[in-house]
Amino acid sequence: MKLTFSTKAWEQYLYWQTTDKRILKRINLLIKDIQRSPTEGIGK
Asked: With contact defined as beta carbons under 8 Å apart, do 35 and 28 qualify?
């Protein structure tokens, strides 16, 4: 699965990298779970 960010989403992702590592960790967890199982999981 190819992961693509819109320009605004990428800016927000970079913002969380410098602002709150806890939220960034949650975002990364959600992305990994969506890639593993797009129709089920923690993001649903």
From this structure: no
